[in-house]
Amino acid sequence: MVARVAVHTDEYASTRPPQGVTMPNDRMPSVGDPAPPLSAPTATGGHFDLAERRGAWVAVYFYPRANTPG
Asked: For residue 48, what pLDDT is reported?
């Protein structure tokens, strides 16, 4: 998989993924690690699976939902 993972948090990090998101929970990835398996529902009602994009450049951006502690 051609992917890099960078993890950045300012003040808050959750150890549990949001509802509907699947990721291994054994450890947080480090910068330069291959991307972990990731699947999640999309905002438009579809489904995103990182494995389906193997070999492609992908930017995965996470942000907290409005009015939440994240």
From this structure: 86
